[in-house]
Fold each of these.
Amino acid sequence: MSDLDLLTQSLARNVKRWRNDRGFTLDALAARAGVSRGMLIQIEQARTNPSIGTVVKIGDALGVSITTLLDYEQGRQVRIVPAEQAVRLWSTDAGSYNRLLAGTEAPGPLEMWDWRLMPGDSSPSDPHPTGTVELVHVLAGELTLTVDGEKHRVPAGSSASFEADTPHTYGNEGGEPMEMVMAVSVPPVR
């Protein structure tokens, strides 16, 4: 079985499990996530490979991390994620990418990401649920972080935090690759 097949089946199983745990119907989850009921049916039947944006919306609506939705070997207390199992969810032909390194559900979804943006590349993000906070630490290059239309430059060695319930974009307007580590904390669904 390919990695993509494994992820598709894990996503199907986990979306259905968390939807049922939350007591959401397909229609209720579709409305909360802003995705079609038909897309949810395809996801729960492992018949589609949805975009990262769709997976994020579903995770946010369920109040669980992307790690939880894609996880197929969740352990009890200590979970080691080998480098080769970090999930690459976005990439460009130029060499930019992000990788979901680890995540947990206490008290709400908490995710840790590895990002690389090549010069001229950017990645926009829709607003996350109110109360979501993101932390970034730039390892190399310079991040151009645009939050609610305002640009902020974050050079190597610097960190930034922001409320992510507004549109935001990670960009590299410099001449060298930008590398950063990011943590995302989403409040639990009530």
Note: The radius of gyration is 17 Å.
Amino acid sequence: MSATATTSQRRGRGGRERILAAAAQLFAVQGINATGMEQVAEEAPVSKRTLYAHFRTKNDLVIAHLQDLASSGATLESVLTREDIPPRERILKLFEQPAGGANPVRGCPFIDAAAEFPDPESAAHSYAREQKLRMAQLIAALVTELGCREPIALAEQLATLADGAASRAMVLGDADYGRHARAAAEVLLERAERVDSPG
């Protein structure tokens, strides 16, 4: 990038969006705790003054980053609210990596954030927990709509499968790893949907 282009971007609008985009890239590649605020400012690019005008602390930036992810449609949970897809298929799409062709394969950013901020009282950990609880609630609503038995327990089982598959996909570098968990999810759904025949 030329010096002129860099100067133009620093003076232009959209500083907050550039900061969040830079933070998302850096957090995904090297982790949240390993990324410094100065590095985010350089990557954005914005001045440190602009960075701190938008985000007074790194914790503020981390929470804004997680909120941005939650509303972006790029996380596992986002498919659960897609009304253009039938309920059962929404659940099974949990086992597909979000679009984007990330290399290396990413896991769930909320689980990653909770791991980097292990104190359950920390803002990042609390926000990640809220998202994981919301995920189970969304699944529970869908399996209830499908007429499944014991929807709360089934939702927790499906959420555990989805989160576990995303984590293993990241560790193993296998974007298609979710196929194993999807097969298990199909069995769980089939058994829960099945109407018991008269004895």
Note: DSSP finds ten helices and no strands in the chain.
